[in-house]
Amino acid sequence: MFSDNVVISNIIAGGLSAGITGSVLKLLEITATRGVFDQKLNRKLVHISFGLVFMLCWPLFSSGCAGAVVASLIPGMNVVNMLLLGSGIRKDDATVKSMTRTNDHRELLKGPLCYISVLTLVTAFYWRTSPIAIAVFCNVCAGDGMADIFGRRFGRKKLPYNRDKSVAGTVAMACAGFLASVGYMLYFSGLGYIEASFKLVTKFLVVSIASALVESHPKSTQLDDNFTVPLAVFLFGTLLF
């Protein structure tokens, strides 16, 4: 996109993507430090925004393996950052506050590390021509993030099989994951990466409902939904797409 030389073009694309996603994270670090939002809400805004904004940058990269590998370095750098911060080797209170529930840096080695690792692997191996990549990103980021936000706000009615989860949260997750998936399907379809169809929309709906049900199961909380949700999307996506 930026040069006839694929290497140079991907380096420029990587720099722009890193700058854009880094700016989003920095803004949410500032809001966390200044207490603009409740800490749990701020954490979920990070959860939602990073992956979705990063996926918007995918068209900047070249097609094929080269673009996928360079693009995966963007979340990959954050994997390294999570390891350094979570182990205490590096100190960054603003990042810790924006991404954890308890301000304990060791928490970064759990859900946040799993989350960013999933995005890295999906980018590297599935990339922008795969509906599975769209489904994973949208259900992990938009779906899981909105489940927590709506569940805390409107979750008075609990699920009969899991009193820690609400009907509102589960419905919000299925809807948000599905709508985001359709939105990115249209986005990538307009750029010629995938072919949009009603059949594909139906498959996204099934995957989003399935991932919401998996997230609402008690075992998902025990194992960490940053692991169980992408695993569910991958399994159902492999069967459907």
Largest sheet: 2 strands, antiparallel
**What would you call the structural class?**
mainly alpha
* Shape assignment: globular
Q: Walk across the major sheet and give the strand order.
A: 1-2
Structure at a glance:
With 241 residues, the protein is mainly α.
Please give a structural write-up.
- With 241 residues, the protein is mostly helical.
- It has two domains: 1-128, no CATH class; 130-241, no CATH class.
- The protein contains ten helices and two strands.
- The chain has helices spanning 6-34, 39-56, 64-86, 93-99, 111-125, 131-154, 167-190, 198-216, 218-223, 225-240, and strands at residues 158-159, 162-166.
- The protein has a two-stranded antiparallel ribbon.
- Helix 2 (39-56) packs antiparallel against helix 6 and helix 5 (111-125) packs parallel to helix 10 (225-240).
- It is globular, with a radius of gyration of 18 Å.
- The two termini are 29 Å apart.
Essential attributes:
single chain; 241 residues; mainly alpha; 2 domains; two-stranded antiparallel sheet; 2 strands; transferase; transmembrane helix; chloroplast; kinase
Secondary-structure map:
Elements: H1 6-34, H2 39-56, H3 64-86, H4 93-99, H5 111-125, H6 131-154, E1 158-159, E2 162-166, H7 167-190, H8 198-216, H9 218-223, H10 225-240
Antiparallel strand pairs: 1-2
Helix pairs in contact: 1-2, 1-3, 1-4, 2-6, 3-5, 5-6, 5-10, 6-7, 6-8, 6-10, 7-8, 8-10
Subcellular location: Plastid, Chloroplast membrane
Keywords: Chloroplast, Kinase, Membrane, Plastid, Transferase, Transit peptide, Transmembrane, Transmembrane helix
Transmembrane segments: 6-25, 45-61, 67-87, 108-126, 132-150, 171-190
